[in-house]
Design a protein that fits this description.
By secondary structure, the chain is α/β, with parallel strands linked by helices. Helices cover 51% and strands 12% of the residues. Helix 18 links the parallel strand 18 and strand 19. The protein starts with a strand and ends with a helix.
Length: 731
């Protein structure tokens, strides 16, 4: 069965239906594109056909381009992959341009056949680029549907004409939120923005009626009409010039130049706005090819699309019956417990929120009420939805209310004794099959499980703060954790629509063990005399959301000191960070505890706004006369993290490099353009990575010693995905 089929009715309307068999959403492959192109030819050549409606057999109109098709374009071109990509993309442009022109006379713009699209639900990526090429877009009045072009979020940009058409349609300023931010909106907002044309109860009927009554002028796109002027002005227009200068400043300010797709998109928009439409499409195709040839693009697509989707669908879920949660118990109504309660109640679960006093429990429930109120003000929630969500939450001090819970998540203080006490109290109430999870961020799960008489039903579920905003959840398997507990945790994370990674128990698990070296390396450099601004800005220019010094201030310096003391007590002579502790303890002693105290590595005003780096740092740690090279600083920050990720894989804490890459990006913002630690090492090449380790070890210290696994792979010239990727594991 082909992905596109056509039927014709007695009134002369040809309906082309898109349906990818065996897939949850439609994707456009090369074969499907050829089929669509052929059907358009047939309909345009058929005198009995008065007009065409393109629609979908699925609830969602489309999901995007078949990424395998892009890879095949490169492979088929042999030694000229860029040429293969460019020609394949231009073939796509040709097919969509044929729809747009619909047989019109090129001189008079007369004689074409009307082509409309009917969107039953979500239309994103190529699923919107295709409708944008039709003459009228009708969408169902479905507030849950999303309309937009989110490609920038996975390291590319709309390359099937979506960039050029949206800018021509809305102007550079109007199109920027949808192109540069990947903004998705519901159909009514999409109509209000001018992206689509109509929102109706029955888009198919409305589209059919329109094509039967459309006139020649209804088919001509503004950019094909004589005298067209771009909304907001073209680059050579004074108003347009200001827009493009501002857009360039905004893109570079936000991305720090670390994301190739954003720069390429802006170039395609600017250059395309200077030339006729068909030439602009060719420029878009060239820049799209440029991005696809950049290894960053492939890495981002793999990690943020393919790997993320695989993990969310349970790629590493053990065999077990459905473990979706019906009734959840949350122990501790602080910030983490309140956030867990919120996302769980939103997902439809009954939640019992326990705290040691009723006032604290009620405050934890109020967190959900406040969150819903903000959603109501933004039009993202209703009073009815708020009431229904709050009705699912029981805030109490009574452990008896936990009876019937099938999952418990403990989120009390990071104190093993307190955690053991609430564990035992809970297990006295819940049934024998209940799974117990700890939200600890540092304490070993295997040790905490000793408070349970069923350690096989004990697991770690580590949320990142704030729970409602952070996309990642780290699941930690203790030495005795059983498959059902793992399946329960994974199914629960899927219910709350977050991305899980499952790792084995070890100090700091995976995310924290990698981010701590990042923070520590930043502080080491300050102690050595490197300018704090160089340290933080070097990180930001790598794509990290915040630099290591700012991150310490945000998470609080006294917390860092507490973790340092506890880690040193546990590790004894093996503790590696005495030098870092000197600066942490110095800051703590000065009472500079970070943003919360309005004094840390930064100075702050009364409202907590950063004013600049504290001058006392230079007094305590004098600046080097000659500051290090930017790349040297960046390599120290990057290698400090990626080597810890390699060690986690080497030690079996990580079992799947996909989890290592996705977890790094979603968990602590590891340079998204790189695709994650293992993807970055593959971009560098393991031989060079090992060589750089040796250089850093000699110049900086033994913490950069090349792990044995990386050394072995370097000697064999292996890549991480070539050796540990899903295809390699399946072979």
């Amino acid at each position: 069965m082909t992905d596109f089929t056509m039927t014709k009715d007695a009134d002369g309307v040809a309906v082309i239906t898109w349906d990818c068999p065996g897939k949850s959403m439609n994707v456009l492959s090369t074969e499907a594109l050829m089929a669509l192109d052929g059907l358009i030819d047939d309909a345009l050549a058929d005198d009995a056909v008065k007009g065409i409606v393109i629609t979908s057999a699925k609830k969602d109109f489309a999901g995007g381009m078949d990424l395998n098709a892009l890879a095949k374009m490169k492979e088929d071109a042999g030694d000229e992959p860029a040429r293969g990509l460019f020609e394949g993309i231009m073939q796509m442009h040709g097919a969509l341009r044929k729809i747009e022109r619909a047989g019109m006379d090129p001189k008079t713009n007369k004689g074409g056949k009307p082509i409309a699209s009917a969107l039953p639900g979500t239309a994103v990526g190529i699923g919107l680029e295709l409708p944008l090429a039709t003459h009228r877009v009708f969408a169902a009045d479905n507030p849950k549907a999303k309309i937009g072009l989110p490609e920038i979020m996975v390291g590319i940009f709309p390359g099937a004409g979506g960039t050029t058409r949206l800018v021509r349609k809305l102007g550079a300023m109007g199109a920027s939120p949808y192109l540069l931010e990947g903004k998705l909106v519901d159909p009514k907002k999409a109509k209000g923005a001018g992206i689509i044309d109509e929102v109706v109860e029955d888009p198919m009927a409305a589209a059919r009626d329109w094509v039967l009554n459309a006139k020649d002028d209804d088919l001509v796109k503004p950019w094909d009409a004589k005298g067209y002027k771009m909304p907001g002005g073209a680059p050579y227009n004074p108003a347009g010039f200001q827009t493009f200068v501002g857009a360039s400043a905004m893109v570079n300010g936000r991305t720090q130049g670390a994301f190739p797709a954003a720069k390429a998109l802006l170039s395609a928009v600017y250059e395309g706005a200077l030339v006729p439409f068909d030439t602009a499409l060719k420029i878009e195709a060239r820049w799209f090819t440029n991005v696809l040839m950049n290894p960053s693009s492939a890495a981002m697509i793999r990690s943020l699309f393919l790997n993320k989707e695989a993990l969310e669908k349970g790629a590493n879920r053990p065999e077990a019956p459905d473990q979706r949660v019906q009734k959840l118990g949350v122990l501790g109504a602080g910030m983490m417990g309140a956030g867990i309660t919120l996302v769980s109640a939103q997902a439809g679960m009954e939640v019992v929120l326990i705290d040691q006093d009723q006032e604290a429990a009620d405050k934890g429930k109020a967190y959900t009420a406040d969150y819903m109120d903000k959603g109501i003000k933004r039009g993202k929630a209703t009073e009815e939805k708020k009431t229904a969500t709050l009705d699912r939450i029981t805030a109490t001090t009574d452990y008896a209310a936990l009876e019937g819970c099938d999952l418990i998540i403990e989120a009390v203080f990071e104190d093993p004794k307190i955690k053991a006490e609430v564990t035992r109290r809970t297990l006295d109430v819940v049934g024998p099959d209940c799974i117990f999870a700890s939200n600890t961020s540092t304490l070993p799960i295997t040790e905490l499980a000793k408070a349970s008489d069923k350690p096989e039903q004990f697991i770690g579920i580590h949320f990142f703060s704030p729970v409602e905003k952070m996309a990642l959840v780290e699941i930690i398997k203790g030495k005795q954790t059983g498959d059902r507990a793992v399946a329960k945790a994974l199914d629960y994370v899927r219910q709350i629509r977050k991305t899980p990674i499952a790792v084995n128990d070890a100090r700091f698990f995976y995310a924290n063990r990698c981010i701590i070296p990042y923070i520590n390396e930043g502080m080491r450099m300050v102690k050595e005399g490197v300018a704090p601004a160089l340290v933080d800005n070097a990180a930001r220019q790598l794509g990290f959301p915040v630099g290591p010094l700012q991150l310490v201030d945000e998470t609080s310096i006294d917390l860092g000191a507490k973790i340092a003391r506890a880690t040193k007590a546990a590790m004894g002579d093996d503790y590696p960070d005495d030098e870092v502790d000197q600066i942490i303890f110095f800051m703590e002693g000065e009472g500079r505890l970070g943003r919360k105290s309005k004094a840390g590595f930064f100075d702050y005003d009364e409202k907590g706004k950063r004013l600049g780096y504290w001058s006392g740092l230079a007094d305590k740690y004098p600046r080097l006369e000659k500051q290090p090279d930017l790349i040297e600083v960046q390599h120290r920050l990057m290698f400090a993290q990626v080597l810890e990720a390699v060690r986690a894989l080497e030690e079996g804490v990580l079992e799947d490099i996909r989890e290592g890459d996705v977890g790094a990006i979603l968990g602590w913002g590891f340079a998204p353009w790189s695709g994650g630690p293992f993807s970055w090492l593959d971009i560098l090449g393991t031989p060079y990575a090992a060589e750089r380790c040796d250089q850093l070890t000699k110049e900086v210290g033994p913490r950069f010693t090349c792990p044995a696994l990386l050394r072995e792979m370097a000697d064999k010239n292996q890549s991480f995905y070539g050796r540990f990727g899903p295809e390699a594991q399946a072979a």
